[in-house]
Amino acid sequence: MALDQLTLAYGPTVAVAALDLTIARGELVALLGPSGCGKTTTMRAIAGLLSPRSGRIVIDGRDVTRLPPSRREVGLVFQSYALFPHLTVYENVAFGLRLKRVSDLDARVKAGLATVGLEAFADRAPAALSGGQQQRVALARSLVMEPKVLLLDEPLSNLDARLRLEMRMELQRVQRQTGVTMVFVTHDQAEAMALADRIVVMREGQIEQIGSPEAIYTAPASRFVADFVGFETILPDDALGESEGEGETGAQAGWLAWRPGAVRLGAGPYRGIIAGAAFAGERRDYVIDTPMGLIKADTPAQDPPLSPGADIAFDLPRAAAVRLER
Amino acid sequence: MSRLATWITLGLVLAFLIGPFLIIIAAALSAGNSLAFPPQGISLKWVVKVFEIESFRESFAVSMFLAVGGTLAALLMGVPAAYGLVRYRVPGAETIRLIVSAPIIVPGIIVGLALLQYLVIPTGVGILTALFLAHTALVLPYAVRVVTASLDNLRVDIEEAALLLGCSRAGAFRRVVLPNIRGGVLAAFILGFVTSFNQVPVSLFLSGPGVRTLPIDMIAYMEINYDPSVAALSALLAFLSVGIVFAAERFLGFSRYV
Fold first, then answer.
1. Rounded CA gap, A262 and A299, in Å?
2. Chain A within 8 Å of B178 (Cβ-Cβ)?
3. What's the pTM?
4. Which of A32, A311, B135, B158 has CB atoms 3.0–4.6 Å from B66's, for a disulfide?
5. How many Å apart are CA B227 and CA A302, to the nearest integer?
6. Minimal Cα–Cα distance from B173 to chain A, Å?
7. Chain B neighbours among A 197-226 (CB < 8 Å)?
């Protein structure tokens, strides 16, 4: 699937500007970004629910830009699942197949329900199912249509932690089993990391970075991505040398970014006051007030706790930092 | 003390609401020959007589035709109108809503007079046609309002899901929207039916030889025959209305929509 110079707008507001993106068959791609970054808009355009202002959408070699949603062979699992409340689970899954007048309807519906493990619920009303089950019905309803691309809108965000893990594995299994190309939208970096082969980080209607989860996590390309994937301390390149001075330098060469775990507490050339401390199970989180600004750090929980107000020394090791150009 | 006041208020309200109804029933069961309360003896003869009066049968048919036909016509326009107003950003949507509500705001007697003066007399359109138009217009606001309320509760994304599963826009409306607003449409029908059937002022000017709605016919009858058959008919109509609304509440939770 390819998006070619895709521009999407709501009236005068441009939501996505000249987006280029190519996704290989069978790939599992995450569109990651904060709300308002254009990821959902992009997904709706791929589905055909929104006409692009300009640009093309090509699926499997066919230009579908002007085709209605019904003829694109694209499935969409809505965040709210969007099951038909007046139909049973079985009829929900059969809905699209009935319109297609397939001959082996019953077999395909049953196979679809089996894929998501809901054969026993065929005669229930959607309202009688849990959120996780409803989502699996929505997944089956899309899958039985054998779409070329399956889109998922925030597939894990409405589920509790335990179900989330279950659903994540389910989605990966379904993807392996059917080989369908999956594109999902999320604002949760952990979700994107855990599920996707490749992550597209979006910001204000443009692609900020594309890469494997490892690449995004270890080598963010910009301050925006770094901040998004948990580099909580980002300082201008030259801030370290002159930690006492407030001097703003005109031409900054770049930035250095540290994860909280990379900040070493207890020894080092810098000093700061513990402004906040929180116990987070595995780790202890600290906010340190320094002349360079607030710095976030954490230590393993077994280390002795530091109390707020304490004046401590710390180090920001250059070796543990990621350098950012923009 | 305030508890007592509450009960007294409640009692008075109920008495005013239900009292007239009870008096009508009592008058309908009278054995006497004039409309009076308290009734003189008990009998069913006036209830029986209602069914023997030719003009009541005719005007009942007219009223039924207007209530059923007019309401169906109003729904035929009102359901798409409500859908359009809820789903699309229509320019001037507020104005459209206001215009649609106009028949409720404008006094019915003016609507009736205007239709007579500017439609029936100059164009020679039949009285029945004029009545049909008037009743359709009168019911339309209720149809739009009630259907709008049930559309508001329906998520857009189920229509989008239907589109992605192969439906056309019209197909999505028919297969997904309509089945889910069925309760609202039925409620609108019942409300429209009752409104049209009980309508007096609009119909007052729109009556002609052999074409009269039942309430107008009852007024005409009363002017000549002051007997309890009108009370008997009123009681029967009241039971009909109460029966319909009660059934509607029972089977589709009518009060959710009105």
1. 9
2. no
3. 0.78
4. B135
5. 98
6. 12
7. none
